[in-house]
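In keeping with the milestone schedule agreed at the kick-off meeting, the structural modelling team has produced records for the first pair of proteins. Each record is given below as a sequence line and a structure-token line. The laboratory manager (R.T.) confirmed that both were archived under the project's standard naming scheme.
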Amino acid sequence: MTPAPLVHALALRARSAAHARSAACPCGAATLADRPDGIVVRHADTVAKAHPPDSDPAELRARLLVAARLPGLLLPPLDPSPVTLHGRLVTFWPYGTPVDPDDPDAAPWEAAATLLARLHRTPVPQGLPPMRGPAKAARAMDRLRAAGPHPDAAPVLRAWATLPPWARDEAPMPHPRTLCHGDLHLGQLIRRPAPDGPWLLIDVDDLGAGVPAWDLARPAAWYACGLLPPGEWDRFLTAYRQAGGPAVPAEGDPWPALDTAARALTAQTAARAVTKAAEAGRPLDEVERSVVDACDRMATVPPQLTPEHAK
């Protein structure tokens, strides 16, 4: 858990920012997330976020400027310049309505895919750093190794070892000329203005130039592991293609373009699952077991690599 002084200070900053925006603030407050890589506190219509401890100030500001310049795609920050609080970089945002996790039938797969396609077709701004997806996956592997021996770690590490160096963050990404989100899942969408405005992408911590297949990799991995029904995967993929997304061919089998990134996200998800189970001293649950079993299968089946992704 985050130290209480940081959460308290973040709440005070959120309150101050909210009151600066409106004299009629209803003063509702809540902690929306409290993780080592991000603390998010809401006060009325304003959200304050403490970014990961290792965030680079110049790189974060470059990402914030992109969000400020693409208001129809990304939620714009209230200020593109982060402030420092208890040694953490902090930014402020307008509040939006998130995806309802208790209503899977209403999941906005088409909206997510369309936003991604539009993002991928946007020219990469000069000076934007690389997309951080592979770096996050590699960090998950480091944490798995640091968690100590666990019977389910071996298949995850074997699957990881089959990936090309760029997917393990051991080499530059091939042809990183696409503007990518870097960590796409349904928790990265909100409606703004709340409660029923258009969907927008949030969380720019991993935004950058990269391989666009990475942004489709999590739903692709869920589909391959049996966690995402075929109909929902088809909705997502069809909407992405109809919006002109460049990550996959417009027709035909998308898997050669997606396979490497989907394998990397499967391994990352499994690594996090095993690490959490090891730290809690508990067995894997059914979903966690499914991704570890997928890693076990991956280690015996060679990846499908397109020429540009095989580097």
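The second protein of the pair:
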Amino acid sequence: MTKSITDLPIKAGIVGTGFAAKLRAQTLQADSRSHLVAVCGHTPAKTQVFAETHGTTVVDSWQQLVEHPELDLVFISTINRDHGTIARAALNAGKHVVTEYPLSLDPKEAESLITLAKAKGKLLHVEHIELLGGLHQALRQSLPQIGQPVYARYVTIAPKHPAPRGWTFNMELFGFPFIGALSRIHRFTDLFGEVASVYCQSQFWDAGDQYFTACLCNAQLRFTSGLIADITYGKGEMFRQRLRNFEVHGDQGTLLFEGDQGNLIKGEEIKPIEVAGRRGLFLKDTAMVIDHLVKGTPLYVSTVASCYTLKVADALRQSAATGNAIALSGSLASSRSVTKGQSL
């Protein structure tokens, strides 16, 4: 159990200077209960501008930041590959930790970090702002109206022309797409629970040196409830049309979301569903972390739930690599390959 912080303000540091880090910094500086002490980044000039903008101090490396004697809390907003390594170092240095998903690219390392955080009595929180967003909240509230869900489909396509030569287009730094973009799977595990088996296909358009110009991944998940879900994730130069569609079919109706427009369909009746915007979610996540550390209020997602989703995503990686479906145990403590071609 995390012990509440009574010595305010909470002194925080941020690893990273990107979009999420900027929003974290704004929230920390706007809340009288917290203070941004230090930041480190990949590019010195950009990090200096970030520090001047947010009234904080630059340190040379994440290693120096996690060992900073004044810090209570470390935010990890950097490349996916390094999340687990930085989280471990911060926990061992006695800091509370908040990281963007995924906690690690390796589910076993993620489990060991959860164990370490418990042993240290420190917060380990994995951000999953997709659960706070309007689409997910509308889905959750509307699901009872369609009866028993039997089939769901989620498609996100992001054209990029030209594809950036950045870390999100690098397999080593970003991870297998369904791990790097873990929210695509986490929406489903949060709404529909335990996964029985998975199958995945993937394709990459190579740019050399671990970089790609485009990727396309398609996954099929069968849940223990019997629901079957199809999830498609694509980005890069091969695509021309941006898509963000989510549909759920139940035995009493259908939910259909296209972008920010939602509808409940029952026979001939089509009822619009209001979908709130996505602005302010990182700020909300940060404020909830501060509330948790100060007042002990519960967070909106557990690290164990995030780790479970990571195991499902890693099974998808294995399936794409082998061409086999993967059957998962209830606890995902073990998995086994299914003969190629065998139905899920």
